[in-house]
Amino acid sequence: MDRKTFDQYCASLHASENVIQWGDASVWKIGGKIFAICSNWGEGAGNISFKCSDLAYQVLTDMHDIIPAPYLARAKWVQLAAPDALSDDEVRAHIDAAYDIIARKLTRAKRAELGIVVT
């Protein structure tokens, strides 16, 4: 998935916000908390990173071309080290999961303010 497609998909998620920071990285947030990043630093600029569940983190980091995300691995984030590490559909599914994980961590008041319903 390229950065343009990544940004378009993240923008389609309810109440998501985009900030450009850390050397032109596209950082996507919900309620002020980050759920996905498309970075522009290091080899293979344009690497996508996202928050994972504990199980997804274990599975994904055992796969070829998916690594613990630099600086964020302790919080169960992964980084796609190659553009074809996952299909676009798989990336979308993991972004959805990351969004849900972060949305669930928001306070009830914040979720209500943003119109987010968690099931």
Automatic annotation (TrEMBL):
Pfam family, one: YjbR
Domain of life from the UniProt record: Bacteria
SUPFAM superfamilies attached to this UniProt entry: YjbR-like
InterPro entries per record: YjbR (IPR007351), YjbR-like_sf (IPR038056), YjbR/MT2646/Rv2570-like (IPR058532)
Name recorded for this polypeptide: MmcQ/YjbR family DNA-binding protein
